[in-house]
Amino acid sequence: MREAKVISKKSFNSVIVAQPIIENGQVIGAILAGFTITFQSIVVDVVPNLLKVLLLFTIIIAIVGSIFGYFSSRSLVRRFNKIQAGPEAWQKGDFNFRIDGSAKDELGKLSRNLNNMAEEIQGLMQNRQELATLEERQRLARELHDSVKQQVFASGMQIATVKLKTTPDSATLKHLDAAEALIHQAQEELTSLIHKLMPVALEGKGLVQAIKEYIETWQENEEISVGFQTKNALKISSEVEYALFRIVQEAFANIAKHAKATKVLIKLISDEDKLSLVIEDNGIGFNKSKKTKGFGLLSMQDRLEPFAAKLIIDTRANLGTKLTIEISNKGAENAENHRINS
After folding, report:
1. What is the pLDDT of residues 73-97, one digit of tens each?
2. β-pairing verdict for 26-36 and 225-231
């Protein structure tokens, strides 16, 4: 039997297929098959089956999505709980607590930003505490000097006057000598106490000498060359001295940590109407438009706020950083008057 050839004919909505039957080389018949595709047949036969497939596919997706969502939500809840633990700890005063910010997603970025914020708040609180402690120490020192010490001195003068009017052979003279010795001892102890109440780094030195001693130690430890220039005599209050000295410490700490500098120059210049502090390094600089980590610049601004001072930062990548602080005489006087009146 020869191989049969399928003959088909298609129209718009029907298909007819003919299969010849050949025996001994003769066509003895044919098998015809055909079907017609109508809209009704599609609705009745195809759509239900398609809906079943879609329903099954939807159920599978829903089950898989629910399982995935369950585990994903559990992970997110745990991470949110860890993030929430940070502000709760900081509210209680534990600023050493840090949120895990190692993840690279948005929650990791949020955690790192919260940690930076905690560092800045901690630094500002420390500055406020230091300033409050300094003001209290200086207030006590002034009160001891202006009232108690003067009263002790006046008492000593009165005893000396009484001694001049007392005969040498009087029994009272012995007691007056003892009282005078006690007053001299009290004066010496008061003087020592007043000196101890002043900032340790500035005690009996002044700002220029304190900076010299600090940078000598700093450049030996960091192996970075430091130049120090001063111009004109400095006549500033102890509050300004303390603020500038702490700013020098913070600036040098930032240089050692971030700048990768080999040279630093610091200038302290006193003009008729203002005092200028300039700290310049030849390090890598930084991008001022980006939020910096830590609290160095915010801390400096906080220290300078009482004196209405200007903080100018000039920096570019790989060209170093120049920090300039300008305190007008009027700003320093206003801060001093505010302190006296408060």
Report:
1. 777 778 778 888 888 887 787 878 8
2. unpaired
